[in-house]
């Protein structure tokens, strides 16, 4: 693996992040987010992020270089998220990356944010990997199965046709008055509840494809809650049981499609990335699904690598650097808000 | 520093000694139903500064406060309907409820957004101390920032410098606590709705359509687009959608997408606020913008979406949770649709109901 140092920037949604990486090694990974300001509260102040990115980006670059203990002379390339993401937010990162590449006369590498989530389990990993690999990306914005024949060669085998899995968890949490985003609260409460208390439907079983749908589960949750509330106000244990059942329903749907996919496709390893990849119950349920196929699950080494971050952008850029896949005309690089991997 | 073994000492003596120390601006380490906490008088600036020094790297993170009951809590925060439900269900217990603060605590306790977390610990002795003290006490974990969760006093001391240790005035040692997770934090200051307030919306005056299935909803959406096709070509069309979470607003948008012959799957725009699709229908090409105002809290955030700029000939701009932004979008006219559920498959669609 090349040791060329890459400075990577991600401004795809709410968080502004800059990282320095060398191959798959993470030297620094700075994330300036409302989440961090509110870390003890675990919540995000939802914000349309363009202004926030502009205010944060220079600071994250400075801190990323400092924490990595490197100077500009040591950097070999700039990498930036080109998409998918929120258009005005992406623009801020791209403009800054263009400016830095020109100023320091460095090649620029454009990265897909979902590819980066898919490869995020490689961060600081030194083991050899056996392809084909199936990457599962589960976050507040995406739920996808991506087959990786080799690094750089992808085929999207399935995706959510409506809400992302994390979004469904967040929204049902909101229905239960657990704030927003409520995914992390649901995970904690679900530990105390009975996941079999309510039998939740399994969507999309009549289809042969590997696509998923979570909006029906959301509708089921709202109807069930209304029905329960008409009997008695739901108490503490009721909330625990409901969150446990709903979370189980969401993850069971993913695992059902995963199992279906593994019957059709020969896969050697499964990599899990995205914000919901931190959920221990999801990891356990995926491991159980993989057991009969004798496939191991690889997850990112830290929570920061699961959330939106620039280190994962740098890791993909490391591979692209080796293949010399640089942006040809830096000035012409434009955001791709709906850029898909392997479809 | 003094240590009291609370499993052996007389309760009244412990309460009296602790209150005395808190009143004089002291820092105590106390047990809860989760982990050990570090407490000072949350209204005493000197005491709070001392606590912040003890905790080291705070980087602007707010503290929470412990109070004995909701009656005390309302002196320090505004409790809304959502918070009220949480208090009833979970408190006292391992949940911290964040509300809008009233500015009645020392600097550095409320967040920079003016919010404050309230904790009512499910721990008999701590509740007695709080009642006797009659003021809020900070309720942050007793470890220095970034160090391991403190379940026993030794966990804390292993990671403290002498300087930090010297800041502690009293330790209430309850031995090793059961390994419960720290409290779950729930923010009630965001206004993301679960349903629209029906009281404020008149559902009369317009036209009502009934859909008996998802595919019928999509068909209705397509028919409405056909009806407005000239308007789309000449001026562009805004479609405002309302209805509770999970009623089928995105299904309706999928119908619009189908009419516009968009092959890309139309997915929920909640995460990205705005999704953009190119379309080509009968030689006309334009864009479909799918916007979600659910997470939009104020006018400033809404302005950043620059919705007015999207409304140009040939574009269709679908706005979910229209009512959430209505007051800032008064100049924008278009089709308004409210979707209501009558049973699990049937939906009532109120068209231009105002």
Walk me through the topology:
The complex is a heterodimer of chains A (343) and B (354).
Chain A: E1 5-10, E2 16-22, E3 25-32, H1 34-37, H2 50-68, E4 75-83, H3 87-103, E5 108-112, H4 113-119, E6 133-138, E7 143-150, E8 153-159, H5 165-175, H6 183-190, H7 215-231, H8 236-264, E9 269-273, H9 280-291, E10 296-298, H10 303-306, H11 311-322
Parallel strand pairs in A: 1-4, 4-5, 6-9, 9-10
Antiparallel strand pairs in A: 1-2, 2-3, 6-7, 7-8
Chain B: E1 2-5, H1 11-23, E2 28-30, E3 37-39, H2 45-55, E4 64-66, H3 70-73, E5 77-78, H4 81-90, E6 95-101, E7 115-119, H5 124-133, E8 137-138, E9 140-141, H6 153-157, H7 162-165, E10 170-173, E11 184-187, E12 207-211, H8 214-227, H9 229-234, E13 237-242, H10 249-259, E14 274-281, E15 284-292, H11 299-304, H12 307-310, E16 316-320, H13 322-325, E17 335-341, E18 347-351
Parallel strand pairs in B: 1-10, 2-10, 4-7, 6-11, 13-16, 13-17, 15-16
Antiparallel strand pairs in B: 2-3, 3-9, 4-8, 5-6, 6-7, 12-18, 14-15, 17-18
Q: Which spans of chain B of ≥5 residues are poorly predicted at pLDDT below 50?
A: none
What structural category arises from helix and sheet content of chain B?
A: alpha/beta
* Side-by-side strand order of the widest sheet of chain B: 12-18-17-13-16-15-14
What global shape of chain B is seen?
elongated
CATH superfamily of the largest domain in chain A: ATPase, nucleotide binding domain
CATH 2nd-level architecture of the largest domain in chain B: Alpha-Beta Complex
Fraction of residues in β-strands of chain A: 15-25%
* Mean of residue pLDDT values of chain A: 92
Question: What portion of residues of chain B belong to β-strands?
Answer: 15-25%
Classified by CATH, the class of the largest domain in chain A is Alpha Beta
Question: Can you offer a commentary on this structure?
Answer:
The complex is a heterodimer of chains A (343) and B (354). By secondary structure, chain A is α/β, with parallel strands linked by helices. Chain A folds into two domains: 5-121 and 304-332, 2-Layer Sandwich (Nucleotidyltransferase, domain 5); 127-300, Nucleotidyltransferase, domain 5, CATH 3.30.420. In chain A, 41% of the residues lie in helices and 19% in strands. Chain A has eleven helices and ten strands. In chain A, helix 9 (280-291) links the parallel strand 9 (269-273) and strand 10 (296-298). In chain A, helix 4 crosses helix 11. Mean pLDDT of chain A is 92; it is low at 34-47. Chain B has two domains: 2-187, Alpha-Beta Complex (DHBP synthase); 198-351, 3-Layer(aba) Sandwich (Rossmann fold). Chain B has 13 helices and 18 strands. In chain B, strand 14 (274-281) and strand 15 form a beta hairpin. In chain B, helix 1 (11-23) packs across helix 5 (124-133) and helix 8 (214-227) packs across helix 10 (249-259). The model of chain B has no long low-confidence stretch (mean pLDDT 91). Classes of the chains: A alpha/beta (343), B alpha/beta (354). At the A-B interface, helix 5, helix 6 and helix 7 of A face helix 4, strand 11, strand 14 and helix 11 of B.
């Amino acid at each position: 693996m090349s040791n060329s140092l890459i400075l990577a920037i991600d401004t795809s949604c709410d968080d502004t992040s800059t990282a320095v990486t060398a191959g798959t090694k993470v030297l620094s990974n700075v994330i300036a987010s409302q989440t961090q300001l509110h870390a003890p509260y675990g919540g995000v102040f939802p914000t349309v992020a363009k202004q926030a990115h502009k205010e944060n980006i220079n600071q994250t670059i400075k801190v990323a270089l400092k924490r990595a203990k490197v100077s500009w002379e040591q950097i070999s390339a700039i990498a930036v998220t080109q998409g998918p993401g929120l258009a005005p937010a992406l623009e801020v990162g791209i403009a800054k990356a263009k400016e830095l590449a020109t100023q320091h006369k460095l090649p620029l590498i454009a990265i897909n944010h979902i590819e980066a989530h898919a490869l995020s389990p490689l961060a600081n990993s030194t083991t050899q990997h056996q392809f084909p690999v199936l990457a599962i990306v589960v976050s507040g914005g995406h739920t996808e199965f991506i087959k990786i024949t080799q690094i750089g060669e992808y085929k999207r085998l399935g995706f959510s046709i409506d809400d992302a899995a994390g979004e469904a968890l967040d929204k049902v949490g909101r229905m239960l008055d657990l704030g927003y985003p409520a995914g992390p609260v649901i995970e904690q409460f679900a530990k105390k509840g009975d996941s079999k208390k309510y039998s939740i439907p399994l969507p999309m079983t009549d289809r042969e494809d590997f696509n998923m749908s979570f909006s029906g589960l959301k509708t089921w949750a709202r109807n069930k809650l209304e029905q329960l509330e008409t009997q008695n106000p739901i108490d503490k244990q009721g909330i625990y049981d409901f969150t446990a059942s709903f979370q189980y329903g969401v993850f069971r749907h993913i695992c059902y499609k995963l199992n279906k996919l593994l019957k059709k496709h020969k896969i050697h390893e499964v990599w899990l990335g995205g914000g919901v990849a931190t959920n221990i119950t999801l990891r356990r349920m995926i491991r159980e699904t993989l057991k009969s196929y004798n496939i191991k699950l690889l997850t990112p080494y830290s929570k920061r690598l699961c959330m939106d971050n620039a280190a994962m952008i740098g890791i993909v850029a490391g591979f692209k650097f080796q293949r010399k896949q640089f942006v040809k005309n830096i000035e012409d690089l434009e955001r791709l808000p709906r850029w898909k991997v392997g479809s | 520093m003094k240590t009291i073994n609370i499993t052996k000492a007389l309760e009244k003596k412990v309460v009296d000694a602790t209150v005395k120390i808190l009143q004089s601006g002291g820092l105590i380490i106390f047990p809860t139903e989760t982990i050990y906490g570090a407490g000072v008088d949350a209204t005493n600036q000197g005491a709070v500064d001392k606590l912040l020094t003890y905790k080291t790297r705070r980087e602007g993170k707010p503290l929470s406060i412990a109070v004995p009951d909701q009656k005390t809590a309302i002196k320090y925060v505004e409790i809304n309907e959502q918070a009220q439900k949480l208090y009833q269900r979970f408190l006292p217990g391992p949940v911290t409820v964040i509300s809008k603060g009233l500015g009645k605590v020392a600097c550095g306790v409320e967040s920079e957004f003016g919010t404050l977390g309230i904790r009512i610990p499910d721990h008999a002795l701590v509740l007695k101390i709080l009642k006797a003290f009659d003021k809020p006490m900070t309720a942050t974990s007793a470890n220095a920032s970034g160090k391991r969760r403190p379940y026993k006093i030794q966990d804390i001391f292993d990671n403290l410098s002498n300087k930090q240790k010297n800041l502690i005035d009293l330790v209430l040692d309850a031995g090793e606590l059961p390994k419960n997770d720290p409290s779950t934090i729930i923010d009630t200051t965001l206004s993301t709705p679960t349903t629209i307030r029906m009281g404020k919306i008149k559902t009369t005056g317009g036209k009502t359509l009934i859909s008996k299935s998802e595919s019928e909803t999509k068909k209705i959406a397509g028919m409405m687009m056909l009806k407005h096709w000239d308007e789309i070509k000449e001026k562009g069309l805004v479609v405002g959608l309302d209805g509770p979470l999970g009623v089928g607003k995105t299904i309706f948008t999928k119908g619009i997408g189908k009419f516009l012959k968009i092959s890309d799957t139309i997915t929920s725009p909640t995460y990205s606020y705005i999704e953009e699709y190119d379309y080509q229908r009968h030689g006309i090409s334009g864009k479909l913008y799918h916007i979600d105002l659910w997470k939009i809290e104020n006018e400033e955030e809404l302005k950043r979406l620059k919705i007015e700029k999207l409304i140009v000939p040939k574009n269709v701009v679908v706005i979910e949770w229209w009512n959430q932004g209505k007051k800032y979008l008064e100049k924008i006219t278009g089709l308004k649709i409210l979707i209501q559920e009558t049973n699990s498959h049937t939906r009532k669609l109120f068209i231009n109901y105002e």
